[in-house]
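The authors assume throughout that readers already know how a fold can be written as discrete tokens. A single example would do more here than another paragraph of explanation. An entry of this sort, consisting of the sequence and the corresponding backbone structure tokens, reads as follows:
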Amino acid sequence: MAKKKTGEQIPLIDVSPEYAKPLVDLAGKYKEAQERRMEALAEEIQYKKEILDAMKKAEVPVGDDGKMKFEYEGIKITVTPRDELVQVKEKKVTADDPDNYDDE
């Protein structure tokens, strides 16, 4: 029998539940996706601010409905100044409705 050296770690047996590895793997993937989403959200917020600033700088008039609207080449931007809500829609041209936007 070999003598154990002082401070040497003895091999440990795996005592984790059998389902631990798949759950830990999925949790890691979830956190990675969450991190990508948060980075995308930060980028979206920056573009929203830039659109809002550009609409104000261009002095796009506020309509009777209280919204600033800009439409050009199949893109429609609507800004609600009091809420600083920015919506951007792309036109989806169909034979049935050539003025259709993506979420109408």
Q: What stands out?
A: The helical segments are 20-57. Residues 20-90 form one domain.
